[in-house]
Amino acid sequence: MTIVHKAGNIHKNDDGLSRWELPNTPENPAYVPKRAEPQIPIEGINITDVGTELFEELKESYKQDKSCHTLTSPLDKDCKDASLANSLADIWKTSYHNGRFHLFDVILYHRSKHTCVMVLCSRMLINKILLEFHDNIYS
Q1: Which domain holds residue 114?
Q2: Which residue has the higher pLDDT, 6 or 130?
Q3: Does some domain include residue 115?
Q4: Please, is 39 exposed, middle or buried when counting C-beta atoms within 10 Å of its C-beta (0-12, 13-18, 19+)?
Q5: Closest of 50, 76, 66 to residue 121, by C-alpha
Q6: pLDDT tens digits along 30-75
Q7: Nearest in space to 106 (alpha carbons), one of 122, 115, 94, 118
Q8: What is the pLDDT at residue 40?
Q9: 9 lies in a domain?
Q10: CA dihedral (112, 68, 79, 91) positive or negative
């Protein structure tokens, strides 16, 4: 860095505040490499290319879990059944009455303000999906 005096209107003395900017090259000690354009982060899992085995496992896991089975029955028929909703746990019941659950292509989704996430009720299936879509070297 080279300090060169440039006389100002008020202060005519030399000070270290008037500096010429050095080019942003690797020879410059304060070199900052230019960043590439930021990539768009992945915010979900695209499951359109998944085989039918996943959908079959989801159906089975929904049948085995009481709350999921209770939810998928009326949502599959597009009818609201008060007796079924009353048998749900309080957290599930509130979301059901607020219309936050949707069944689309056999998959149960929970919608909040800005997101819609897949409902998985089996710990084994959660681990399997994380392994296949996140931890697998081919994912």
Answers
A1: 52-135
A2: 130
A3: yes
A4: exposed
A5: 66
A6: 888 887 666 666 566 565 566 778 788 888 888 888 888 888 877 7
A7: 118
A8: 61
A9: no
A10: negative
